[in-house]
Design goal:
The chain has helices spanning 2-11, 25-33, 54-68, 110-132, 156-171, 175-179, 214-226, 271-284; strands spanning 16-20, 44-48, 73-76, 139-143, 182-188, 232-242, 247-253. The chain is an alpha/beta fold and 291 residues long. A five-stranded mixed beta sheet has the order 3-4-5-6-7, sandwiched between helices. Strand 3 (73-76), helix 4 (110-132) and strand 4 form a beta-alpha-beta unit. It is globular and about 55 Å long. This is 15-hydroxyprostaglandin dehydrogenase.
């Protein structure tokens, strides 16, 4: 998905830094095609990054600023589909397949490090940068998943890790209104990508299933990135519906507000909102001298 989106960003005039543990052959071809020559045209660079390693995340950010001078858009698209090495059903210290350390301190599942903790850390760095550089209109886009609000016994860590992203994006729903930073998530249904190529999950989503193409998903992402109706913590679902012979891409905003309480205390002040307002004013004061 991210490779298809990188192509659309390039087509739109953006230069792109790709971060991953390694490039696919298609990604290598993209980097070779758009390698910077004179600095005038949009270009692509690659920085090898393990998103679970915070030192590598910091190095990625520094390299991107060094290469391009500024960062306007962050697309958090890292994800693993609960591999045998980090699944709830293979216990660390018990299963020979588990690679999560039974005595890790702090303890963490690698699935959460990649899907949740690393992307949140990268977003933290980006938002801090945008607060200190108010001349840059920050735009934060997340690839979450339909799994962020539906559920699966087979891959509970994957679904829970994406649910955390959905909640995080909604929690930052005031970023644009208060601080001028766009923020939204796209939650795709099934998209046939290399995430489903490994043997352990290749039978779950198959090439002949009704799935979106990466290009279809990337087109929805571009709308969410640019259109005025998005950018306020929106959670946008997209999936292919219909039949193989007559399919269409469906897009809707997920109505998470339906889960909110409908009743509560009467006649009591909401101190949570008061304290949030104090934090907002502190954040609004950041970087004012650099505008």
């Amino acid at each position: 998905i991210c490779l298809a989106f990188a192509q659309q960003l390039l087509d739109g005039g953006c230069s792109v830094m790709i971060a991953d543990v390694k490039l696919t052959p298609d990604a290598e071809a993209l980097v070779a095609k758009y390698a910077s020559k004179d600095g005038a045209a949009p270009s692509v660079d690659f920085h090898k990054t393990d998103i679970s390693d915070w030192a590598q995340i910091s190095a990625l950010w520094e390299k991107t600023l060094e290469k391009f001078g500024r960062v306007d858009i962050l697309v958090n698209g890292a994800g693993v589909y609960e591999p045998p090495s980090s699944t709830f059903w293979n216990l660390p210290g018990v299963s020979p397949l588990a690679e999560d350390k039974v005595d890790a301190s702090p303890g963490v599942y690698h699935t959460f490090s990649v899907n949740t903790m690393g992307p949140i850390r990268l977003a933290q760095i980006a938002i801090d940068y945008w607060l200190e550089n108010r001349n840059v209109e920050g735009n934060l886009l997340w690839i979450a998943s339909l799994g962020g609000y539906v559920h699966s016994l087979q891959t509970p860590l994957y679904f829970a890790s994406k649910a955390a992203i959905v909640s995080f994006v909604r929690s930052l729903g005031q970023l644009r209104k208060r601080l001028g930073i766009r923020n939204a998530a796209v939650c795709p249904g099934a998209v046939y990508t290399p995430i489903f190529h490994p043997e352990y999950c290749r039978d779950r989503v198959r090439p002949d299933d009704l799935t979106m193409t990466p290009e279809q998903c990337a087109s929805v992402m571009m709308r969410v990135l640019k259109d005025a109706e998005y950018g306020d913590g929106n959670i946008i679902e997209t999936l292919l519906i219909g039949t193989k012979e007559n399919s269409s891409v469906n897009v809707r905003e997920v109505p998470l507000e339906a889960l909110y309480p409908t009743v509560g205390p009467v006649g009591q002040e909401n101190h949570l909102l008061e304290e949030e307002e104090k934090l907002t004013k502190q954040l609004q004061a950041r970087g004012k001298g650099q505008q």
